[in-house]
Specification:
Elements (H helix, E strand, L loop, with lengths): L12 H27 L10 H16 L8 E6 L1 H4 L5 E6 L15 E2 L18 H9 L3 E7 L7 E11 L2 E11 H12 L7 E3 L5 E4 L17 E2 L6 E3 L7
Antiparallel strand pairs: 1-2, 1-6, 2-3, 4-5, 5-6, 7-8, 7-10, 9-10
Helix pairs in contact: 1-5
Protein backbone atom coordinates (compact mmCIF):
# COMPACT_ATOMS: atom_id res chain seq x y z
CA UNK A 1 0.00 0.00 0.00
CA UNK A 2 1.42 3.39 -1.00
CA UNK A 3 2.07 6.08 1.58
CA UNK A 4 -0.65 8.28 0.09
CA UNK A 5 -3.22 5.61 0.86
CA UNK A 6 -2.39 5.47 4.56
CA UNK A 7 -5.07 7.23 6.52
CA UNK A 8 -4.10 9.42 9.46
CA UNK A 9 -5.79 8.59 12.75
CA UNK A 10 -8.68 10.86 13.58
CA UNK A 11 -8.22 13.48 16.29
CA UNK A 12 -10.74 15.25 18.51
CA UNK A 13 -11.35 18.84 19.62
CA UNK A 14 -8.91 18.48 22.52
CA UNK A 15 -6.09 17.64 20.09
CA UNK A 16 -6.90 20.70 18.00
CA UNK A 17 -6.98 22.89 21.12
CA UNK A 18 -3.60 21.49 22.17
CA UNK A 19 -2.10 22.40 18.78
CA UNK A 20 -3.44 25.95 19.06
CA UNK A 21 -1.92 26.23 22.55
CA UNK A 22 1.42 24.91 21.29
CA UNK A 23 1.51 27.38 18.41
CA UNK A 24 0.65 30.43 20.50
CA UNK A 25 2.83 29.23 23.37
CA UNK A 26 5.81 29.48 21.04
CA UNK A 27 4.84 33.05 20.14
CA UNK A 28 4.47 33.97 23.81
CA UNK A 29 7.90 32.51 24.62
CA UNK A 30 9.50 34.47 21.77
CA UNK A 31 7.96 37.74 22.98
CA UNK A 32 8.97 37.04 26.57
CA UNK A 33 12.61 36.83 25.50
CA UNK A 34 12.27 40.09 23.60
CA UNK A 35 10.84 41.84 26.69
CA UNK A 36 13.98 40.97 28.66
CA UNK A 37 16.26 42.23 25.90
CA UNK A 38 14.34 45.51 25.47
CA UNK A 39 14.65 46.27 29.18
CA UNK A 40 18.44 46.19 28.80
CA UNK A 41 18.37 49.30 26.58
CA UNK A 42 15.54 51.27 28.20
CA UNK A 43 17.05 53.88 30.49
CA UNK A 44 16.13 53.64 34.17
CA UNK A 45 16.45 57.42 34.62
CA UNK A 46 15.69 59.89 31.87
CA UNK A 47 14.64 59.34 28.27
CA UNK A 48 15.73 56.35 26.21
CA UNK A 49 17.65 57.09 23.01
CA UNK A 50 15.33 56.13 20.10
CA UNK A 51 18.27 55.10 17.95
CA UNK A 52 19.55 52.61 20.52
CA UNK A 53 16.04 51.28 20.97
CA UNK A 54 15.55 50.85 17.22
CA UNK A 55 18.87 49.05 16.86
CA UNK A 56 17.95 46.57 19.58
CA UNK A 57 14.47 45.93 18.19
CA UNK A 58 15.77 45.41 14.66
CA UNK A 59 18.29 42.90 15.99
CA UNK A 60 15.48 40.96 17.68
CA UNK A 61 12.80 40.91 15.02
CA UNK A 62 14.62 40.86 11.67
CA UNK A 63 15.96 37.30 12.07
CA UNK A 64 12.38 36.10 12.58
CA UNK A 65 11.04 38.08 9.61
CA UNK A 66 13.90 36.95 7.36
CA UNK A 67 13.60 33.26 8.26
CA UNK A 68 12.65 30.70 5.65
CA UNK A 69 8.85 30.47 5.58
CA UNK A 70 8.45 32.89 8.52
CA UNK A 71 5.46 32.64 10.84
CA UNK A 72 5.43 36.39 11.50
CA UNK A 73 4.42 39.15 9.08
CA UNK A 74 5.25 42.02 11.44
CA UNK A 75 7.00 42.57 14.76
CA UNK A 76 8.39 45.31 16.96
CA UNK A 77 7.99 47.57 19.96
CA UNK A 78 5.64 50.52 20.52
CA UNK A 79 7.16 52.80 23.15
CA UNK A 80 5.03 54.68 25.65
CA UNK A 81 5.46 58.46 25.24
CA UNK A 82 7.27 58.64 28.58
CA UNK A 83 9.93 56.15 27.44
CA UNK A 84 11.61 58.23 24.72
CA UNK A 85 10.10 61.62 25.65
CA UNK A 86 10.23 62.67 22.02
CA UNK A 87 6.80 64.25 22.26
CA UNK A 88 5.01 61.67 20.16
CA UNK A 89 4.57 58.08 19.18
CA UNK A 90 7.70 55.97 18.75
CA UNK A 91 6.81 53.00 16.61
CA UNK A 92 9.79 50.64 16.18
CA UNK A 93 8.02 48.14 13.94
CA UNK A 94 9.20 46.07 10.98
CA UNK A 95 7.16 44.32 8.29
CA UNK A 96 8.05 41.03 6.70
CA UNK A 97 7.85 40.31 2.98
CA UNK A 98 4.29 41.28 2.08
CA UNK A 99 1.89 39.67 -0.34
CA UNK A 100 0.53 42.04 -2.97
CA UNK A 101 -1.75 44.61 -1.33
CA UNK A 102 -3.21 48.04 -2.21
CA UNK A 103 -0.88 49.93 0.14
CA UNK A 104 2.62 48.52 -0.38
CA UNK A 105 2.16 46.22 -3.35
CA UNK A 106 4.38 43.18 -2.86
CA UNK A 107 7.72 43.39 -1.06
CA UNK A 108 10.62 40.95 -1.29
CA UNK A 109 11.94 41.36 2.24
CA UNK A 110 11.54 43.13 5.60
CA UNK A 111 11.02 46.89 5.76
CA UNK A 112 10.59 49.47 8.52
CA UNK A 113 7.05 50.74 8.97
CA UNK A 114 7.15 54.44 8.07
CA UNK A 115 4.17 56.13 9.68
CA UNK A 116 5.19 59.55 8.36
CA UNK A 117 4.25 58.40 4.86
CA UNK A 118 0.86 57.07 5.93
CA UNK A 119 -1.61 59.92 5.53
CA UNK A 120 -4.60 57.89 6.76
CA UNK A 121 -2.91 56.55 9.90
CA UNK A 122 -4.20 59.41 12.05
CA UNK A 123 -6.01 56.94 14.29
CA UNK A 124 -2.61 55.96 15.72
CA UNK A 125 -2.44 59.32 17.46
CA UNK A 126 -4.85 57.78 19.94
CA UNK A 127 -2.97 54.48 20.02
CA UNK A 128 -3.34 53.98 23.81
CA UNK A 129 -7.05 53.34 23.21
CA UNK A 130 -6.46 50.62 20.60
CA UNK A 131 -7.00 47.07 21.83
CA UNK A 132 -3.52 45.77 21.04
CA UNK A 133 -2.00 48.52 23.24
CA UNK A 134 -4.73 49.25 25.77
CA UNK A 135 -5.44 45.72 27.00
CA UNK A 136 -1.89 44.52 27.74
CA UNK A 137 -1.09 47.92 29.30
CA UNK A 138 -4.08 47.77 31.64
CA UNK A 139 -4.03 44.04 32.46
CA UNK A 140 -0.22 43.70 32.57
CA UNK A 141 -0.60 40.48 30.61
CA UNK A 142 0.04 39.25 27.08
CA UNK A 143 -3.01 39.79 24.87
CA UNK A 144 -4.23 38.41 21.54
CA UNK A 145 -6.17 40.79 19.28
CA UNK A 146 -8.16 39.43 16.38
CA UNK A 147 -8.57 38.04 13.92
CA UNK A 148 -9.19 41.40 12.26
CA UNK A 149 -8.41 43.14 8.98
CA UNK A 150 -5.20 45.16 9.29
CA UNK A 151 -5.67 48.34 7.24
CA UNK A 152 -2.32 49.80 8.30
CA UNK A 153 0.14 47.25 6.92
CA UNK A 154 -0.87 43.82 5.69
CA UNK A 155 -4.35 44.71 4.34
CA UNK A 156 -5.41 41.18 5.22
CA UNK A 157 -6.77 39.17 8.14
CA UNK A 158 -4.19 38.99 10.92
CA UNK A 159 -3.83 38.20 14.59
CA UNK A 160 -1.75 40.51 16.80
CA UNK A 161 -0.08 39.29 19.99
CA UNK A 162 1.22 42.03 22.30
CA UNK A 163 2.81 42.03 25.74
CA UNK A 164 3.65 44.89 28.14
CA UNK A 165 7.27 45.80 28.80
CA UNK A 166 7.38 47.03 32.39
CA UNK A 167 9.74 48.22 35.07
CA UNK A 168 8.66 48.93 38.63
CA UNK A 169 5.01 48.65 37.66
CA UNK A 170 5.33 51.31 34.94
CA UNK A 171 4.47 50.29 31.37
CA UNK A 172 7.30 51.31 29.05
CA UNK A 173 5.48 50.14 25.94
CA UNK A 174 4.28 46.95 24.32
CA UNK A 175 6.21 44.43 22.26
CA UNK A 176 4.40 42.23 19.80
CA UNK A 177 3.95 40.41 16.54
CA UNK A 178 1.47 40.16 13.67
CA UNK A 179 0.63 36.85 11.99
CA UNK A 180 -1.41 36.35 8.84
CA UNK A 181 -4.53 34.26 9.47
CA UNK A 182 -3.77 32.40 6.25
CA UNK A 183 -0.35 31.51 7.73
CA UNK A 184 -2.05 30.19 10.87
CA UNK A 185 -4.31 28.12 8.62
CA UNK A 186 -1.26 26.33 7.25
CA UNK A 187 -0.24 25.42 10.79
CA UNK A 188 -3.68 24.40 12.03
CA UNK A 189 -5.54 22.92 9.06
CA UNK A 190 -3.61 19.62 9.05
CA UNK A 191 -4.93 18.75 12.50
CA UNK A 192 -8.39 20.23 11.82
CA UNK A 193 -8.78 18.15 8.69
CA UNK A 194 -8.00 14.92 10.53
CA UNK A 195 -10.72 15.57 13.10
CA UNK A 196 -13.62 13.17 13.22
CA UNK A 197 -16.08 16.05 12.76
CA UNK A 198 -16.07 19.58 11.26
CA UNK A 199 -14.36 21.87 13.77
CA UNK A 200 -13.43 25.54 13.90
CA UNK A 201 -11.27 27.74 16.12
CA UNK A 202 -13.06 30.86 17.39
CA UNK A 203 -12.09 33.86 19.46
CA UNK A 204 -14.09 34.92 22.51
CA UNK A 205 -16.64 36.86 20.42
CA UNK A 206 -17.25 34.00 17.99
CA UNK A 207 -15.12 35.26 15.10
CA UNK A 208 -13.61 32.36 13.18
CA UNK A 209 -9.82 32.11 13.17
CA UNK A 210 -9.48 28.83 11.25
CA UNK A 211 -12.09 26.32 10.17
CA UNK A 212 -12.02 22.75 8.92
CA UNK A 213 -15.55 23.21 7.59
CA UNK A 214 -15.58 24.83 4.11
CA UNK A 215 -19.00 26.33 4.85
CA UNK A 216 -17.59 28.33 7.79
CA UNK A 217 -14.98 30.81 6.56
CA UNK A 218 -12.29 32.68 8.47
CA UNK A 219 -13.48 36.07 9.67
CA UNK A 220 -17.14 35.09 9.89
CA UNK A 221 -18.95 35.25 13.23
CA UNK A 222 -20.77 32.25 14.65
CA UNK A 223 -22.43 31.44 17.96
CA UNK A 224 -20.00 30.16 20.60
CA UNK A 225 -21.51 26.96 22.04
CA UNK A 226 -21.21 26.10 25.71
CA UNK A 227 -19.46 22.80 25.01
CA UNK A 228 -16.42 24.20 23.19
CA UNK A 229 -12.91 23.14 24.18
CA UNK A 230 -10.78 26.03 25.46
CA UNK A 231 -7.24 26.25 24.12
CA UNK A 232 -5.10 26.75 27.23
CA UNK A 233 -3.14 30.00 27.35
CA UNK A 234 -5.11 31.55 24.49
CA UNK A 235 -8.49 33.29 24.03
CA UNK A 236 -9.52 30.65 21.50
CA UNK A 237 -12.04 27.84 21.73
CA UNK A 238 -12.46 24.81 19.46
CA UNK A 239 -16.07 24.08 18.50
CA UNK A 240 -18.30 22.29 16.05
CA UNK A 241 -19.70 25.46 14.45
CA UNK A 242 -23.26 25.95 13.35
CA UNK A 243 -23.30 26.27 9.58
CA UNK A 244 -24.78 29.44 8.07
CA UNK A 245 -28.37 29.02 6.95
CA UNK A 246 -28.92 28.65 3.20
Amino acid sequence: MGESAILRPQVDAEAVADRVSELFGGIHDLIAGWRTSILEVVAEDGPTDPGSLDERIAGLVLPELEADDPLLIGAGFIAAPETTRTGGLHFAWWLGALDDNPVFGATAGPSRLDLASRAYAEYLRDFPSLEWYRVPSSTHRTHVTGPYVDHLCACDYIVTVTSPVERGGAVLGVVGVDVYVKRLERELLPVLLTAGEPLAVLNATGRVLVSGDPAVVAGSVVTVPDDGVVSAGTPFVVVRPERPSA
